[in-house]
């Protein structure tokens, strides 16, 4: 039997159920944003999409019980897959590097390929971006739905902060305690992303990035009108459940019922993700506040 979660905080009426399997499957089914090293000169790590059988679901849920931040949850999903992988051994996870009482950063994962004994330092990234044509440079157009982050900003941080951390003297000293030498470690990035585009660009092929990452559209709040959307049903999941396939949801609201919730998000300058059901057809989209 699958563990289920109540992910609405509003009232007993506004409850939906999602299983831990739905969460992990959504994470694994999210494609890598790129494959070619030519894009950012960053080699992509491919996590097998086939989910490892969950033998102790209750224990896994207990490990996640107080982890609500999406980024931290997907780190545990990634770790679970590696720990039960036929191809990799997990050597290090979430290693904080501290020198002179100052935190320099954190290494996400170091794994060892079983066949070759090759060590790989992996940084995991899990993002949701909307495409804003207002930016001049193509890759600069991928930004967070609240305009607080962007693809290029994250890539820059990876290249200037997160990946170079491996070669810091303090890091090497810590890894020596694990009998790990940094001289032969490869570095890769597992950069999974869900992309949302304007509705009028649905037939566009986007250069450089993996177009399989495009999973929905985005609109301005003013466009979320009864005239266009009154016949559908809706749900707005909490962020930790954004990776989940909308078809797994069981609770749906009419346009008139969901509108006040969306309006409240917009007033707080928060862009909600919305799941939409029309018959047996499901879509997901962001309604942006800006």
Tags for this model:
disordered N terminus, 290 residues, alpha/beta, single chain, 9-stranded mixed sheet, 24% helix
What report would you give on this structure?
- This protein is of the alpha/beta class and 290 residues long.
- The model is unreliable at 1-14 (pLDDT under 50).
- It has helices at residues 20-29, 57-64, 70-83, 151-162, 169-176, 226-229, 255-267; strands at residues 4-6, 17-19, 88-99, 102-113, 119-131, 142-143, 186-198, 214-220, 233-235, 273-278, 281-288.
- It has one domain.
- It contains 7 helices and 11 strands.
- A hairpin with a 2-residue loop joins strand 3 and strand 4 (102-113).
What order do the helices and strands come in, and which of them pair?
Layout: E1 4-6, E2 17-19, H1 20-29, H2 57-64, H3 70-83, E3 88-99, E4 102-113, E5 119-131, E6 142-143, H4 151-162, H5 169-176, E7 186-198, E8 214-220, H6 226-229, E9 233-235, H7 255-267, E10 273-278, E11 281-288
Parallel strand pairs: 5-7, 7-8, 8-11
Antiparallel strand pairs: 1-2, 3-4, 4-5, 5-6, 9-10, 10-11
């Amino acid at each position: 039997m699958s563990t289920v979660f109540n992910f609405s905080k509003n009232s007993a009426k506004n409850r939906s159920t999602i299983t831990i399997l739905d969460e992990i499957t959504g994470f694994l089914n999210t494609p890598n944003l790129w494959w070619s090293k030519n894009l950012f000169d960053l080699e992509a790590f491919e996590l097998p999409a086939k989910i490892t059988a969950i033998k102790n679901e209750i224990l896994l849920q207990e490990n996640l019980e107080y982890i609500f931040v999406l980024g931290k949850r997907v780190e545990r999903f990634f770790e679970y897959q590696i720990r039960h992988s036929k191809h990799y051994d997990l050597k290090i996870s979430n290693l904080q590097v501290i020198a002179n009482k100052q935190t320099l950063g954190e290494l996400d994962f170091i794994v060892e390929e079983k066949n070759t004994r090759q060590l790989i330092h992996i940084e995991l990234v899990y993002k949701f971006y909307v495409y804003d044509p207002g930016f001049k440079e193509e890759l600069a157009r991928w930004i967070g739905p609240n305009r607080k982050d962007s693809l290029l900003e994250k890539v820059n941080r990876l290249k200037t902060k997160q990946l170079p951390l491996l070669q810091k003297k303090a890091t090497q000293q810590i890894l020596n305690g694990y009998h790990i030498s940094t001289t032969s470690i490869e570095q890769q990035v597992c950069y999974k992303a869900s992309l949302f585009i304007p509705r009028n660009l649905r037939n566009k092929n986007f250069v450089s990035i993996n177009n399989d990452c495009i999973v929905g559209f985005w609109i301005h709040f003013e466009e979320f009108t009864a005239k266009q959307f009154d016949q559908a049903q809706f749900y707005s999941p909490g962020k930790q459940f954004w990776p989940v396939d909308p078809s797994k949801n069981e609770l749906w609201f009419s346009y008139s019922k969901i509108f006040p919730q969306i309006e409240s998000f917009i007033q707080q300058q928060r862009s909600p993700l919305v799941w939409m059901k029309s018959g047996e057809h499901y879509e997901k989209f962001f309604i942006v506040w800006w």
